[in-house]
Structures are given as C-alpha cells and as structure tokens.
Amino acid sequence: MGGTDPGSGATRSSGASRRDFLAGAGLTGAAAIAAGALPLRALAAGDAALPPLPVTADQRGSEPASRNLIVDGTAVAYLKKLSGGEAFADVVVEAAGPDHVRHKHLATTQLAPLVATVGREMGGPLAELIASTLDGNLATKEVASQQLDINRHVTSQTDFGRARMVQLVVPKLAADSKDVVYFDVTLAAGSASTTTPGGTAVTTTPTQKAWVASNFRVDIPGLPCARVASIDPLTVKVTGPSAGEKPGAAKSAANLEISNLVMAISMADYPDWEQWHQDFVVRGQNDAGHEKNGKVQLLAADMSTVLATLTLSNLGLFNLSTEFEANSAEKISRFTVEMYIEKLGFALTA
Known about the structure:
With 350 residues, the protein is mainly beta. It contains 3 helices and 21 strands.
C-alpha cells in the first residue's frame, strides 16, 4: 500500500519494494541521482541472462545478445545474469480536488541497484570490492555495463561512476549437489550516463576452475567438521550512507548485517557439538573467549586445491537440533547447528 504525503493528502504508489531496498542502503532522495548525470531516455532496461537465447539472422545487429559488467576496467568473465541499473520513480497520488479527479505525478527519480550473479572468474576488482566491504569498509569501484550484440560488439555502455556493494548472497553448499556456485552481488551507484562507444567488448580468459556446490571443506578448530553435509545460504547486507550523503562518498566503516551459519552434520559427530552446546548455551559459558573461529573453503575438483575462502570470526552456537524420522534406515541421520557470525571474510586464491 502507498504512504501519504504529510499535509497534502497525496499517496505514493508503486515501486514500494524497490524503494524499501534503496532506503535500507541509504540511496533514496536526491542522493540517488547526480544532478544532470542521468539521461533517462538512454538507459538500458530489463534483465538479460547469459548466455543469450538464440538470435535469428534478421535480428543480428539489432537485438542485444547479452550484457557485460565492467569493474575498474576488468570484465566479469563468469557473469550468469545482470539486472537493474534502470531509472524509476514513485508515483504520487494526490487527494481529489474540485474536479473530483485524483491527479498523479512522479516523485523522486532513483536508480535500481545492479544485481550481478557471478562465478569464480569475477575478476580481481570485484573480488577486492567484496573483500574490502566485508572487512568493514564502504569501498567503491568504477562500474559500467555494456549491451552487446551477437558478435559481442558493444552497442551501448552505461557508466555508473563509483558504486559500492550493498548486499552479498552466498548460495547453499551441499555434498550431494552438482550445481555451479554463483554469488549474487548487489551494487548501488548514484548516477548513470549512457554512450555508444562501439568496438568489441572487454573480455577475460576464464581458467575454467568453476565452483561446484559439493566441493567445499569446513574447518572450526576443536569441532569435527569433516562430515558437514550442507551449509545454508549466507546473506550480508550493508548499511549505506546517511540521508543526504552521496552514495560514492568515502566513509570510515560499513555496518554489516550477517545472517546465521546453519549447517547439517552427520550424527557421528554429535557428541562434540553437543558438548559445546552444553557449555555455551546451557551453562552460559558464552563470552567472547568461548566463541570460535573457522573457515569454509571452496575447492577444485581434486578436493584439495583451494579456490576461495570464507573466514568465519567469532562464531557463537545458539541452537542444536535433531530430527527423527521413522522408517529411515537408508537415510543418513543428521543434526543441525545454528551459529551467529560476527565477521565474515572473503578471499580468492588459486
């Protein structure tokens, strides 16, 4: 439902969910668009999944085949999907006047966040942006998107200036999964301008060392982790600048909201986890000195080469649960642990 403009009787409609997201990132109002920097008619609209659908001969050269994401001049190689970056506005519905018509007009124009679904070959600059943001910095990078034709020639380019990460989603990892792992990285910028530079798209050469959801290893010193069956998705939300502050402006620290670490583990490892549960939860030995640190490593197919590492700092166990299922002789019995995380780190390796 739309809100009401104070003193006017006007209500706002449409774009509520997107507006709420931008408000959480500190991007509403005039700070969302740099004055004169956003040619609305030139912005590219809609999602474009990679790889593209087949294009017929009469469409070649006229329909965009894909979108390219450029971060500090480096193209993201494993870009599964890129959406957002369009201009949008709320609609204000005024109270009915003497003509008995509820007139409408547009309110503040804003930019939808860019959401990039990326794999391991995300490129150094984007990996640096993720790592720096998770380290508590409101870091920024120069970001642009390109519309490409079927021959990967650039048909248009939208420059977003300096953008920052406002959300990161790490997908579920599971020992029985064959899915390729992609991170969802949400970027917010304060301006956009579109050009038609032409030429061939910036490309990188993938190493083909893709992340696979079943290739992971957990290490929490003092606890058995060799039989972790799955890890639920992790989400990090980044609080943005205060109202009126330009999104690209530097700031000393970012406020991170990190979701809980939820893992399913074989019952063979239950005793040691139950002991920590008794100490930390039941007996109340849960100060900082009794928290734990650990890491999740994403591995290559040889289950030895480390491709990336998520570091887990100040873990605190707050729930341990088991589930009994009758007639489940062929099913591996597991228990579930839930832990809070105070700090999450990220690093690409080999």
